[in-house]
TrEMBL record:
SUPFAM superfamilies: CheY-like
Protein name (record): Response regulator
Source species: Pedobacter frigoris
Swiss-Prot/TrEMBL GO biological process terms: phosphorelay signal transduction system
Modified residues (4-aspartylphosphate): 59
Length: 130
């Protein structure tokens, strides 16, 4: 494959904890993803239209909303309904998460293992659901 033809996947991370956002950003950049980080959801739709992410990593507990409501907003908008979403949460686990009406493409409880995060991202980008 020619060097110029590499396609970098665009990932939008919405996480209000700056340390976690920084770590996720550094890890993903080291894996050659293009990363945009937001610490609240308020400007999210403008960012999504601008950057057209291939994946959104979305914290459930944000200062300006619940990630599950934001997921619903994404799923019910024709421009964003196709974008895969990985929900992350420190409050919920696989066992007690209540997704509501709209299911994400994956869920990961914090703290998570970096390899698990990368595996989920690669899987979701390849069309899998967790």
């Amino acid at each position: 494959m020619a060097k110029g033809s590499i396609v970098y996947k665009n990932i939008l991370v919405i996480e209000d904890n700056h340390a976690i956002l920084d770590v996720i950003t550094l890890i993903l950049q080291s894996e050659a993803y293009k990363v945009t980080g937001l610490n609240k959801s308020i400007d999210m739709m403008a960012h999504i239209q601008e950057s057209e992410p291939d994946l959104v990593i979305l914290d459930i507990m944000l200062p300006d909303g619940d990630g599950r409501d934001i997921l619903k907003q994404l799923r019910t908008n024709i421009k964003t309904e196709h974008i895969p979403v990985l929900l992350i949460s420190a409050r919920y686990t696989e066992e007690n998460i209540q997704h509501g009406e709209y299911k994400p493409n994956g869920f990961l409880a914090k703290p998570f293992d970096i390899d698990d995060l990368l595996d989920r991202i690669e899987g979701i980008l390849a069309g899998k659901t967790y």
